[in-house]
Amino acid sequence: MPNQYESMGFFDFQKRYPDDAACEQKLYSFRWPHGFECQKCGHALFYALPKRALFQCKKCKYQTSLTAGTVVITPQ
Question: If residue 64 lies in a helix (H) or strand (E), which one and from where to where?
Answer without folding.
Answer: strand 63-64
